[in-house]
Design a protein that fits this description.
Elements (H helix, E strand, L loop, with lengths): L11 H9 L5 H19 L4 E2 L1 H11 L14 E5 L26 H8 L3 E6 L11 E2 L3 E2 L1 E2 L2 E5 L5 H9 L4 E6 L5 H7 L2 E4 L19 E6 L2 H11 L17 H7 L5 E4 L10 H11 L8 E4 L7 H23 L6 H11 L3 H21 L5 E5 L15 E2 L2 E2 L11 H5 L4 E8 L5 E7 L5 H15 L13
Parallel strand pairs: 2-3, 11-12, 11-13
Antiparallel strand pairs: 1-3, 4-5, 6-7, 8-10, 9-10, 9-16, 13-17, 14-15, 16-17
Helix pairs in contact: 2-3, 5-6, 7-8, 8-14, 10-11, 10-12
């Protein structure tokens, strides 16, 4: 069944069923993906680095085992975001500083995925060091949105989202600090899950104790995301935040479709401007729970400190992690990132103390809120996909943003409160572009979040993916 285009249409779970039944092989899937990439990726630029020779070697090793004894993923191919090293594969982080870098070793997460039957065949595009909500860099250029090739995929997991939407991946790895899984999922009509810190351990890390940024799964539907989350989890001494795998799989939790009792919806969390059409699409999607007997109310905790708190903590982190490189090679950093790093150098001890106290208030406010509500729903992004040449969103509904990341602020509360958050397709704009609904669960509550997300996906439907890339104006 080598290079069977019909395989592209199937879900990851359906592909694994075929693998375990011996009806397809991992090499068949690689052949199919390589052919599809040849047809569509030149248009979207989602997977600029391919490693099919390495993937076929790994597939050959897996095929020496019985199809049912190849791990959870059974030989399913997966791309890895180009912020995470894969041994023997080009590893640029979207930066000219590392344009020719080749990773000597794989991250712990990559090793775990491969041990559980995943086959790495590509690196997905990302903005420079994952910074900024638009996937472009000076190494590989911009990733274009398959729904409209004139539009952005958001970021920073834009390459992963575009690959899923255009049919060059069944599952994809991403990461998220300020919405980097959720924003591209929204813009590309796929599903992206930001787990609680430690749910998906990585390592070794330069800053093992930072927990603003996490790794997570992306797919075209909720159950496929849950499947990849299962393959990513597990306790490890390399990550001080790591959590043990739960007794029940996340896939089983999603398939249980256990509905929440009471959920809250907020279009703006009380501090963000939101495009009216986006707010309306998301509210209609949230009200889909009412048809299942779930109480839906408009409410949110006090989150007004989120923008400034996130900016201070992020800037401090960026200065710590990239400050020396930026000061030695300023010409190789995009201006927004350079300014962000310099802001980190200017953060005072008083600023940091205030930010940490504010983060504590946000955490406590969310934890208290979830004693009354099971979920907090909102738009995943505040605007529809914007022109790709626009570096970031400068204003919304007449409100001018002060900083280049502020337009992403609706994603910050989940990050600051260490809550799992998933973006699922909510519908389309009048122009036919995807809109994502953000669903936030209580801390370490991925199982109940996935279960509710699957119940709502059943109600409102998943996106009709994959699609052939197109321009709609």
């Amino acid at each position: 069944m080598a290079n069977d285009p019909q395989l592209i249409e199937k879900t990851a779970i359906e592909i694994i069923d075929l693998l375990q039944a011996g009806q397809v092989t991992p090499v068949d899937l690689l052949d199919t993906l390589e052919a599809r990439i040849g047809v569509v990726d030149g248009q979207v630029n989602a997977l600029p680095t391919l490693c099919f020779d390495r993937a076929r070697e790994h597939a050959g090793r897996l095929m020496k085992h019985d199809p049912t004894d190849r791990g959870l993923l059974a030989g399913l191919p997966i791309p890895i975001k180009d912020l995470t090293p894969v041994s023997g594969v080009r590893f640029t982080s979207g930066s000219l500083l590392f344009a020719n870098n080749v990773a000597e070793n794989s991250d712990l997460l990559v090793e775990r995925i491969e041990k559980r039957g995943g086959v790495v065949y590509a690196k997905s595009n990302t903005p420079e060091f994952g910074a900024g909500g638009n996937t472009f860099n000076d190494v590989f250029g911009a990733t274009l949105n398959p729904w409209d090739l004139t539009k952005s995929t958001a970021g920073s997991s834009g390459g992963a989202a575009a690959a899923l939407a255009s049919g060059t991946a069944w599952l994809a790895h991403g990461s998220d600090m300020g919405g980097s899984l959720r924003n591209p999922a929204s813009f590309c009509g796929v599903v992206g899950l930001r787990p609680s810190p430690g749910r998906v351990p990585i390592g070794p890390k330069l800053l093992p104790h930072q927990n603003l940024g996490v790794q997570g799964p992306m797919a075209r539907n909720v159950c496929d995301v849950a499947l990849l989350l299962d393959a990513m989890t597990g306790l490890t001494p390399l990550d001080p935040w790591s959590l043990p795998s739960p007794g029940q799989s996340f896939l089983a939790a999603a398939q249980s479709r256990h509905k929440p009792r009471r959920v809250a919806f907020s279009a703006d969390f009380g501090f963000m401007p939101v495009d009216t059409e986006i707010a309306d699409v998301c509210k209609r999607a949230a009200l889909g729970f009412e048809e299942q007997g779930v109480v839906v109310e408009e409410a949110h905790p006090d989150l007004k400190e989120s923008l400034e708190t996130f900016w201070i903590l992020r800037s401090n982190l960026f200065a710590t992690a990239m400050g020396t490189m930026a000061r030695q090679n300023p010409e190789k950093f995009k201006p927004e990132l350079l300014d962000n790093i310099e802001a980190g150098f200017n953060v005072s001890a008083d600023d940091l103390m205030k930010a940490e106290l504010a983060r504590g208030r946000i955490y406590n406010a969310m934890a208290t809120f979830f004693q009354e509500y099971d979920l907090l729903l909102s738009p995943s992004t505040i605007v529809p996909p914007f022109p790709v040449e626009q570096r970031y969103v400068e204003s919304c509904n007449g409100y001018q943003f002060e900083k280049y990341v502020d337009w992403l602020g609706i994603a910050f509360p989940a990050t600051l409160a260490s809550c799992p958050s998933i973006s699922i397709p909510a519908g389309l704009t009048a122009n036919g572009l995807p809109v994502g609904l953000q669903m936030i669960g209580h801390q370490k509550g991925e199982a109940s979040l996935l279960s509710a997300a699957q119940a709502l996906e059943d109600q409102i439907g998943a996106s009709p993916l994959p699609i052939d890339p197109r321009s709609i104006g």
